[in-house]
Amino acid sequence: VAEQLLHEDTGVFLLPLDPIQLATELQAPKEKQTILPRIAQVAQRTGKKAVLHIDDIEMMTGQDNISHSTLLNLMAGIRDSGFYIMASTNYPEKVDPSLLQPQRFGILIYTPLQNEEARHEILKIHATKESTRLETPLFSSAKARDIILNEVVKHTDAYTPRYLAEIATIAKSNLSERVAQRKGRRVLS
Length: 189
Prior knowledge:
Helix content is 48%, strand content 9%. It is mostly helical.
């Protein structure tokens, strides 16, 4: 969702933020913090809301993490700072329940793994992207593509979109290598 929003004009700034980078920022004294003040300043100057996206939020929410209480305090007053925070995780059980209270992350959206039809579409999208990058089709025809992708879909039940995309990337690499070998060249990685 966040990646899609990055490519759309929504009238807000969507800024990806690394959880380790944010934890480091929160552990610094207020006068040495740079990231959050800059974001608040940009939001104030432009009049646009800034939405920070923290992927893998569980990396900074452990009970013994120094930035934990600072994050809780930040979340309590986040809207007054001119920005919002959106976080994602593949491990919701690792997120501290205190972050899920109102005035913090009060809205939860569960996104399950994709069904066969959705996995097929994801693979098709990424295969098309990789074909474009390679400037050569990964498949000899649309029919061959669908046969192969249908077979891959049967074996990818618990795969996330990221892993499905990686399958297309590996297919492109394998094709590049085969083409290079046929032409008597070596592929540099």
